[in-house]
Design brief:
Length: about 325
């Protein structure tokens, strides 16, 4: 094994435990932040207004949960970089330039968690101060419009007030100074996170560092993380345990070998078709053996004759008869 390759493998062994622990800890912090915040400030079906009222009543909970969530995403940088470098050390085809995306994406998601919390806190404070007046203005406008509408399905005064409360709350949340930062960092983080997880899962599977099942699952969960970012956390739990060496059965052999050990092609193991047989023969699907020329038994009426082709012999026989 080359000296530089040996150094990379030794570095993997030194950082494996740390990266694995940070992966599990990051997932725990992110999941815990959602559980902690949701148990105290439930969004439920109360609408945006009730959510801002709950945030204002539990400002500390909102702040602490956002810090836990941001810290959890930042912890995920370690396992992502570790896995990316492990794949790059075993295949020169891995694009090292994507390491920037792998690092930046979780950091952006962590920043978005903090700015979103700041936006919610500002909106909750604004709603407590100016919300009632803004709601009354909205109710008067809607009531005036309803007075000109004589249809039977007009909303009741209670429904009009509830709609106005949610509209005012949404406007306040969207009008905070940090709402733009939340949207920008959040979108960039989710897109980068999706690309990073899918790319890393692909090359971990190709180099034999992950089984086909977990590599395919990582790509699938990474692809849907753009809509459901929490689903991919299940994959990170397994990866963290794998890196730390806590998976039953041990890690795939490519980890200890320090080189890529691709998984056998299941099509070849099952006797599937092949593009090249090596001898130029035709191949039947499901068989690796070339077709052989079929030999027919000799015709007793026309015995074999080495002097020429069989068809010529038959023509001569007919003319003689």
């Amino acid at each position: 094994m080359p000296a530089d390759q040996t150094l990379k493998i030794e570095s993997e062994r030194r950082w494996a435990m740390t990266a694995g622990i940070l992966a599990v800890l990051g997932v725990t912090l992110i999941a815990g932040s959602y559980i902690y915040n949701g148990s105290v400030i439930p969004a439920g079906d109360g609408g945006s207004a009730d959510y801002l009222v709950g945030i204002e009543a539990h400002r500390t909970v909102q702040l602490v949960s956002s810090l836990f969530q941001a810290l959890g995403y930042m912890f995920l940088v370690a396992p992502l970089v570790f896995l990316f470098k492990a794949a790059a050390a075993r295949s020169p085809r891995v694009r090292n330039g994507l390491i920037g995306v792998v690092i930046a994406a979780p950091l952006f998601m962590g920043i978005a968690a903090i700015t979103n919390s700041a936006s919610n806190l500002d909106a909750a404070s604004e709603y407590r101060t100016n919300g009632p007046a803004l709601v009354q203005t909205c109710v008067r406008e809607k009531s005036a419009d309803a007075g000109n509408d004589q249809s039977a399905d007009a909303d009741s005064p209670e429904q009009v007030k509830a709609d106005c409360e949610d509209e005012v709350a949404d406007d306040l949340r969207g009008g905070t100074s940090t709402s733009g930062l939340t949207a920008g960092f959040g979108l960039a983080g989710v897109l980068g996170f999706t690309i990073g997880v899918v790319y890393i899962s692909l090359w971990l599977m190709r180099t034999g560092l992950l089984t086909r099942f977990w590599g395919s699952l990582g790509m699938a969960l990474g692809a849907v993380s753009i809509l459901f970012p929490l689903f991919v956390l299940l994959w990170f739990i397994y990866v963290g345990l794998l890196i730390a060496g806590w998976v039953p059965g041990g890690r795939p052999p490519a980890w200890a070998a320090g080189e890529a050990i691709p998984w056998p092609d299941p099509r070849k193991d099952a006797g599937g078709d092949s593009d090249d047989t090596g001898d130029g023969g035709d191949v039947i699907e499901g068989s690796a053996e070339p077709l052989e020329e079929t030999e027919f038994p000799p015709d007793p009426e026309f015995p074999p004759d080495d002097s020429g082709p069989q068809i010529e012999r038959r023509k001569r026989k007919r003319r003689n008869g």
